[in-house]
Amino acid sequence: MARTKEFDQEAILDKAVALFWYKGYNASSMQDVVDALGLSRSSIYDTFGDKHKLYIAALERYRAQAAGGLIDMVNQSKNTMTSLEEIFKMLVHDSFTDKLPRGCFMVNSTVELAPHDEEIDKIVRENMQDIEDAFFKLIVKGQESGEISKDKNPRAVARFLFNTISGLRVAAKSGVTQEIYNDIVSIALAGIK
């Protein structure tokens, strides 16, 4: 008779996200995975497959939570500039409440693995497109309401916003100050009106 799994897979994936987000894929040994997840190797392999498959599952979970949350904020937006300010405030808060600067798990994956791993590259590109599309809709909404000038290309502004957020996440890993963050956010928001 087959044994039933006696653990919450989502909670385990959250632990995997935390490990890989902090250490990256290459620096995380299988023993690190076992220790972080609190499962035996056989349970990990039976449930998730190898380390690579676990990483992909963790990255997809992060994507659903992080990008999904941002997309929900955009879709529920009543005011474009207020929503953008809230997104940047959330980003600054996340970046400065971590004891150890981790940046963004998706950005870290882009740098570490996407150039050499087709599956990771596909996830990263789809995530980028989803966020860009959400920003595009938000900018169009802002142009229709008069908050943002119609002389700006909404697709270009959406790409600029995505790139600004990605850059801020990279900067977070290097330990920049909140003053630097605030300067970048201020110029970014002023530049899109």
General description of the model:
With 193 residues, this protein is mainly alpha-helical. 75% of the residues lie in helices and 0% in strands. The protein is built from 9 helices and no strands. Helix 4 packs parallel to helix 7. The radius of gyration is 19 Å and the shape is elongated. The mean pLDDT is 91.
Principal-axis shape equals elongated
Helix content: over 70%
Number of strands: 0
Q: What's the tally of helices?
A: 9
The structural class is mainly alpha
Parts with pLDDT < 50 across at least 5 consecutive residues: none
Radius of gyration: 19 Å
Architecture blueprint of SSEs:
Blueprint: H1 9-23, H2 30-37, H3 41-48, H4 51-75, H5 80-97, H6 105-112, H7 118-145, H8 154-173, H9 178-192
Helix pairs in contact: 1-2, 1-4, 4-7, 5-8, 5-9, 6-7, 7-8, 8-9
